[in-house]
């Protein structure tokens, strides 16, 4: 199983980034995919999730600024992040949970740094 996140980097406040997470070794179309983040000294939090059918859920702090999407043909989930703020600085990781077996998998993170 591999969930490889990419697309992180350094961006100025107000800027945008698009994260990608390519999955392999899982039945992608049966997985609820999620993006989590963990800032230094803080607990990991769920940023956004998307079901196999495309229903989405967002943390209140990112609602209206971030958009999660998926491409089942490419086994990839995306996180479009707009209007970025310094408090969005964190390591972002993707996850997948199989809706049938409940198996849960984590991927490696990608660092997002937002400068003020």
Please give a handful of descriptors for the protein shown.
116 residues, mainly beta, seven-stranded mixed beta sheet, four-stranded antiparallel beta sheet, 11 strands, 55% strand
Topology:
Blueprint: E1 2-6, E2 9-12, E3 17-24, E4 31-38, E5 45-50, E6 56-58, E7 66-71, E8 76-81, E9 90-98, E10 104-106, E11 110-115
Parallel strand pairs: 2-11
Antiparallel strand pairs: 1-3, 3-8, 4-5, 4-9, 5-6, 7-8, 9-10, 9-11
How would you classify the quaternary structure?
single chain
Strand content: over 45%
Estimated radius of gyration: 13 Å
Runs in which pLDDT lies below 50 for 5 or more consecutive residues are none
Largest sheet features: 7 strands, mixed
State the shape: globular
- The proportion of residues forming helix, as a percent range, comes to under 10%
Number of strands: 11
Estimate the mean pLDDT confidence.
97
């Amino acid at each position: 199983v591999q969930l490889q996140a990419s697309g992180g980097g350094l961006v100025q406040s107000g800027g945008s980034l698009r994260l990608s997470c390519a999955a392999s070794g899982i039945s992608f179309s049966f997985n609820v995919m999620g993006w989590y983040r963990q800032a230094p000294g803080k607990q990991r939090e769920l940023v956004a999730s998307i079901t196999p059918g495309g229903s989405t859920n967002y943390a209140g702090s990112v609602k209206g600024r971030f958009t999660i999407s998926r491409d089942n043909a490419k086994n990839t989930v995306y996180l479009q992040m707009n209007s970025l703020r310094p408090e969005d600085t964190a390591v972002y990781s993707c996850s997948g949970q199989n809706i049938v077996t409940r198996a849960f998998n984590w991927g490696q993170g990608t660092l997002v740094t937002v400068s003020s």
